[in-house]
Amino acid sequence: MLNTYARAFFTRVLTPFAALLLRLGVSPDAVTLVGTGGVMAGALVFYPQGEFFWGTVVITLFVFSDLVDGNMARQLGRASRWGAFLDSTLDRVADAAIFGGLALWYAGGGNDLTLCAVSLFCLASGQVVSYTKARGESIGLPVAVNGLVERAERLVISLVAAGFAGLETFGVPYIEWLLPIALWVVAVGSLVTLGQRVVTVRREAAEADVAARPGGTSPQRGNSSSPQGEA
Ligand SMILES: CCCCCCCC/C=C\CCCCCCCC(=O)OC[C@H](COP(=O)(O)O[C@@H]1[C@H](O)[C@H](OP(=O)(O)O)[C@@H](O)[C@H](O)[C@H]1O)OC(=O)CCCCCCC/C=C\CCCCCCCC
Ligand SMILES: Nc1ccn([C@@H]2O[C@H](COP(=O)(O)O)[C@@H](O)[C@H]2O)c(=O)n1
Ligand SMILES: [Mg+2]
Ligand SMILES: [Mg+2]
């Protein structure tokens, strides 16, 4: 949903900044790499210590690089397959750092094994949700569903809650409960999204297999050479 509605707004806002970086000679790949490094640093240095406010500030400064890199590549007319691969792969790394950092806090100073498990579930389910789309597309299916909780939702819900929960350090009472609530919402939402995507791929695969039989229309092909592709 955010990817559909908020992307256009952020594209308008971030385009001048992307143009400035290009004028300074910065490449889209450098922005992808530095942005991921910044998110990882914010998540893995601050979150395991329970420093949610400053961790979220650092992550927020860098996470928007994921919208800037593609914008730069498009302005250059050089959006590439390599760039798409690098962007998506490093998205997975950044997400792992965010939920891994939260899991480390709950396994240590936060002392809550249930929330540690919920954080790990958010990490794993987010990766699997993204994989369903990548794998479905690799076997030539359109995967024409985004689902309830895409990456943008996972990030916004978790980061807004972590940022506000961090205000506990400054004496705001009861606010720390926002983070556990957000983690449960992301966990349940990711599970629902996984179900939505699996059901869609199952239907599309069945339709494509029927169409591929003699007498049927040809199935839509992606970038793999066989309908099974490579794992
Ligand atoms: C007083 C409190 C202090 C609080 C401190 C600061 C708090 C700040 C809190 C939050 C800011 C969160 C910002 C998060 C922005 C996320 C932007 C982003 O990177 O989104 C990425 C997303 C997807 O990009 P891609 O197309 O590159 O990725 C694809 C995707 O990953 C697919 O995964 P899937 O979805 O399938 O699981 C993969 O399949 C694919 O491979 C991959 O390529 O980009 C977008 O979706 C674009 C829309 C971004 C919308 C951002 C909205 C930000 C909105 C609100 C910010 C709210 C700030 C409120 C602060 C409140 C504090 C006062
Ligand atoms: N280093 C990069 C990063 C991205 N791209 C291209 O942008 C697309 C992603 O756009 P976002 O707005 O989500 O960043 C990606 O699929 C690539 O086509 C690139 O070329 N180089
Ligand atoms: Mg990007
Ligand atoms: Mg990305």
Automatic annotation (TrEMBL):
Q: Does the keyword Lipid metabolism apply?
A: yes
Catalytic residues as annotated in Swiss-Prot or TrEMBL: D91 (proton acceptor)
Q: Which cofactor does it need?
A: Mg(2+)
Q: Where in the cell is it found?
A: Cell membrane
Q: Where does a CDP-1,2-diacyl-sn-glycerol bind?
A: D29, A30, V31, T32, G70, R74, S80
Membrane topology of the entry = Multi-pass membrane protein
Q: Which reaction does it catalyse?
A: a CDP-1,2-diacyl-sn-glycerol + 1D-myo-inositol 3-phosphate = a 1,2-diacyl-sn-glycero-3-phospho-(1D-myo-inositol-3-phosphate) + CMP + H(+); 1,2-di-(9Z-octadecenoyl)-sn-glycero-3-cytidine-5'-diphosphate + 1D-myo-inositol 3-phosphate = 1,2-di-(9Z-octadecenoyl)-sn-glycero-3-phospho-(1D-myo-inositol-3-phosphate) + CMP + H(+)
Q: Name one Pfam family in it.
A: CDP-OH_P_transf
Membrane-spanning segments? 52-68, 113-134, 181-199
Q: Name the predominant localization.
A: membrane
Positions of the UniProt region annotated as Disordered? 207-231
Task: Name the pathway it acts in.
Answer: Phospholipid metabolism; phosphatidylinositol phosphate biosynthesis; Lipid metabolism
Give the EC number(s) under which this enzyme is classified: 2.7.8.-
Write out the biased-composition intervals (Polar residues): 217-231
The protein's UniProt keywords, in alphabetical order, are: Cell membrane, Lipid biosynthesis, Lipid metabolism, Magnesium, Membrane, Metal-binding, Phospholipid biosynthesis, Phospholipid metabolism, Transferase, Transmembrane, Transmembrane helix
Q: Where does Mg(2+) 1 bind?
A: D66, D69, D87
Q: How does it assemble?
A: Homodimer.
- Name the protein family: Belongs to the CDP-alcohol phosphatidyltransferase class-I family.
- Protein name, please? Phosphatidylinositol phosphate synthase
